[in-house]
């Protein structure tokens, strides 16, 4: 049940499409599969002389190229296997049997991959995607493994994935089923595109990117991995982004590929010149990669805005931005409106609004009417003073129905005591921070079942 | 971890939730759909996500690949990151019967998947619904709720519980006067006698005016009071208006501060799932619980036996789903 209803015409501006065109336009095509992707099982049996020639060609002539394009997968034990690749290899059909036990892909599924660029420091990254090891091994063995003996689909199919990047002469062997000129999602192209398959191996969620619009989909489809993607990944690695975050960052913000690499470096340098430490910059980029899309002028203007609007010191601005990097890309007008809400409608003083911003900057980015509803409940129903709210301003991020449920329960128990000078004091932090399973025994001193029963009277 | 489609197959049936106040029933449905999609996507949903049995390397056979873990993903185009999540919220067909308005809370009977077939039977059964309605003397607002525009202020110290009891009895009698009319029988006939002897006299269909079978004061502490109302074919707005009219009858005014449905036929608060429990696991468990409430003797109230066709009766008696009941579920 793949209920994806978005229609993305991925090849909108492509013009007449043949396989050769695709290759010539360097859309990062990687695979030539003579029998088309539609019949992955069939090719093992019908593999003929021509295809083995191609394989020999790739493994012989372009051996170095091939290895590089296999993205220099270093797999433990793989070399040992390659050494005896001339031996007769028999893959038993009991290679893997299904068992009705399931597990998520574990960390051991990931592969260490060296992304090497000539003249530059080698940077190691980990492909978080599973299922890479088998494919690489069979690719290296591609020339010698007799496909008709490979009874198992898992091994036999994978060779067409790893056939190295095609040269123009190889493109003569066009697929019997040409690639679709338009598609609903990336799935039709992933097997044929080095860029897309490499992105998936990095953990990029292509299905999420599809929702970001046609323009970016077209752009990503036309990228070349080595030329257009690799430098950006190296850039991310260079500023200290961890491997497991790479995929998430690209998923969140694929627009980064549309930026000039020099500009990105300039923006990083700018942030560092504003005394953000490199750890801070890394953290910010990992949490909100969109900040790198902003020009230096706009970055500067935004930082200046916060400093001026809340009369902050440089240190306070930095602390707030590091705490909530979304502030950089957040709309100024909304911040001004929320400041107005806090100041005029709720009656906090300028100094108090500043303290709220410094301690929990996210409060200024919540929607206005929700903030007002929360304040109304906290101040008018629970009877908390402005000063008490500023003391623990994270309370403004708590949803009002949670406040209401817990407060009313404490009232029914006679435990709603929010004055720190009296006994049985319940702090705001204690009121909202824990899950019900801990909160009921710790704060309300009752069982969860009693709390649930109470909730059914609201 | 359970195989996702296995869970999806289990999500067929009737369950019961506690609708919180302040949200529409449709928001409740969307919330449940979102939660179900999220929960099921957390389980393995694609064939390659199943764990394969690991095989000890056999020294006699030179097999290169068995030393590695068995893999099942053959083409990257089958990967979750390419195809996206397997389930999206509209995959879960969630419906409800006899909704509650935004400001009321309480038991809401819902169905997921093929459970919808039962909803029409539930609607046909015309179950009695029990409400706890809370009122407050002293105000009158334009929409009878505390959030409306205040139209009038009044005193209420002359109101006593005994007088309120009397008014409630009047309300009950005034409605029950029309009981046989709504049931479509003449009051003096043999048919009416048989209906009354069989139990509660239900209205003929769901379009009759609201019928209140019972109205009692269960809590009285001025200015607040709580009524327990048993009714069929009511709406929440009708109950709020009733509070307003009781206020006027008592030479005062009253607003309705809470409408809470505590029972819907055999579905009670015990069965209802709280908002925090609207997860796949809890809903599947709840479907199993509610299955016992869908037996033929519970679904076929006296009137629907006279209405239902013979083969439907036979189906229900055989424990099959009532496929032939064609009346659509109430979505008011």
From TrEMBL, chain A:
The keyword Transit peptide applies. It comes from the Eukaryota. The keyword Secreted does not apply. Pfam families: mTERF. Keywords: Transit peptide. SMART domains: Mterf. Belongs to the mTERF family. PANTHER family: CGI-12 PROTEIN-RELATED, TRANSCRIPTION TERMINATION FACTOR 3, MITOCHONDRIAL. This is Transcription termination factor 3, mitochondrial. It comes from Sinanodonta woodiana.
Automatic annotation (TrEMBL), chain B:
Residues 99-235 form the Pseudouridine synthase II N-terminal domain. Gene3D superfamilies: Pseudouridine synthase. It comes from the Eukaryota. InterPro entries: PsdUridine_synth_cat_dom_sf (IPR020103), PsdUridine_synth_N (IPR002501), Trub2 (IPR039048). Belongs to the pseudouridine synthase TruB family. This is Pseudouridine synthase II N-terminal domain-containing protein. It comes from Sinanodonta woodiana (Chinese pond mussel). The lineage of its organism: Eukaryota, Metazoa, Spiralia, Lophotrochozoa, Mollusca.
